[in-house]
Design a protein that fits this description.
The protein is mostly helical. The protein contains two helices and no strands. Bound molecules: zinc ion (ZN). InterPro entries: YhfH-like (IPR025432).
Length: 41
């Protein structure tokens, strides 16, 4: 069951920042729709 969840997220396209359009590295789920740079602003 857990492997299905991991595979589900692998198949998702990379998140992009809603502000600058940069690809978001998903290190934390709290990033939301903004990259690390725009989150701090
Ligand atoms: Zn950004």
């Amino acid at each position: 069951m857990l492997e299905n969840v991991i595979e589900f997220f692998r198949n998702l396209p990379a998140k992009k920042c809603a502000t600058c359009g940069d690809t978001i590295e998903e290190q934390h789920e709290c990033y939301g729709n903004h990259c690390d740079k725009c989150t701090k602003l």
